Fold this sequence. Notes:
The complex is a heterodimer of chains A (384) and B (241). Chain A is of the alpha+beta class and 384 residues long.
Amino acid sequence: MKYLGLIWAALYRKPLRSLLTLASIFVAFLLFGMLQSVSVAFSQGIDFSGVDRLIVAPKYSIIDPLPEKHVFAVQAVSGVERVAHRSWFGGVYQDSSQFFPRWPVPVESFLAIYPEYLLSDTEKQAFINTRTGAVLGRPLAEAYNLKLGDKIPLIADIWPNKDNVGWEFDLVGIYDVADSSVDSEQMFINFEFFDEYRQWGQGTVGTIVVKINDPDQSAAIAAEIDRLFANSPAETKTTTEKAYNQMFAKQVGDIGLIMTGILSAVFFTILLLTGNTMAQAIRERIPELAILKTIGFSNMSVLMIVLSESLLIVLVGSLPGLLLAGFLLEGLRESVSLFNGVELSGLILAQGLGLACLMAFVVGLPPALRAMRLNIVDALGDHL
Amino acid sequence: MADRWSLFRRSIVTGTLIEIETLAKDYYRGKVVIPVLSDISLQIEQGDFLALMGPSGSGKTTLLNLIGGLDTPTLGSISVGGERIDKLGQGQLATWRSRNVGFVFQFYNLLPVLSAEKNVELPLLLTNLSRRERKKRALAALAVVGLQDRASHRPTELSGGQEQRVAIARAIVSDPGLLVCDEPTGDLDRTTADEILELLQLLNRDYGKTIVMVTHDPKAADHANHCLYLDKGSLTGSQAL
């Protein structure tokens, strides 16, 4: 502890170099905190606790359709309060770069299950009563300068219609959202019209949304629903919305492997950078280290001082990085639904600090050994 | 102020402090043996101020390093205060140096990131003294060299002479009986050099420090009590001043 002032002072030797090194370590551990949290969230099991909405999806692939009759069967399951469904429309608006999700839904039941999509009563009635009706989130309507009554033409990609022409919907409502974690950049379409007018796939839906009476029964109800369709041509996997969203994101690839790949590249680079900086810093200070040994610091003390300097610089850089990752994830959780449940846990924080210590040891050991083995007479040779 | 100064004032003890017998030191460049010192025998009395003089390459600094426990001899023995330091291992030598020797170098060798006070305090980090006591002693040592008002200044904010004074304060802060000085005025102008040499004389005369000083400068040597001459690794003469 009494060496702390001596160790801390090393940071001020070359302030710019220290600052740049700290910045690179900071960024590396910021990335670690965020990516590792995402990776862990995507690899953990499904937590049904306190959940009152479930998603019934095809068991084997999200592009497989479910028969619409499953909806009625699910409605009959004990503990289920209400059922709706949604399907992936795809389509192109103006050009393919202007993407936002479009979902054909049974209007009345869907809005009842999702009260967080806020529509006026007039707009809600218009959506229910207009077969070609569609509603958009306010940010989308503003971005495309769309107002009530406008036509929204969509080019079909997955679902051509019976006339094999472009789809056209009437904008009958612009919804707001109850809080920032709800996705406001979606378009909802009247399922009834979509189902009748599409060329094929009538009587099928994408996923079923289930509102249950008692959140404590969510796991049991999910199991019951899947049991209902076991060994049928359209088996299901019932899960929470959070787990479903993550499953959806996993279509991109193995999230854990991608995160590990990115982190490995980042840390390898930081290891080389910090290792080089440490080695250079110690090389410049050989006479000073020789003086410490001259006045009686033991070889082991000098080794520990250099290792402690390495630990200090890595901890000063990594701890704020990890803490900022925690704050950013908190913000993302509130504004992006996909990040729901992604958090910097105590375990990840501990892993981060452990990694920081390991990094400090790896980059600090070679210069520390050099300092320890320093021959005083040789080191001071140029100065004596 | 008197109390501070008294921290480093010791009663003058007489007798032999350093005893060197048939000392030799060889260096190796690959397989080639380079003899630097041979057959050196001498005694240095407690409280002496000894100047080591001789041409470059005569072995002055090597002898000083051996006396200060920075290096070990190839042959012969060195006793300091009755302790055979040539028999000590590296770790034991480090501990011995911290308790018994203060070092002053030509280029001061202060740590640039530390204040004068913190530089002086460095040897005390090896003791069990409290932080408060360490600070008190560091300031007292700075007072001895006349730099108590520069305690918070970094080496870059001091002149060469002031830096050397801080180095001397560092050398005496743990109150060693022996000071080894290698060309302590080699990097200073005449006036500043004289001030430093007077300070060393003060430490020798009033504080009872035994001083062994390597110098090329006859005027610097004039401040010592005795002068030993080396040439080609051997003692060639001595002179009482």
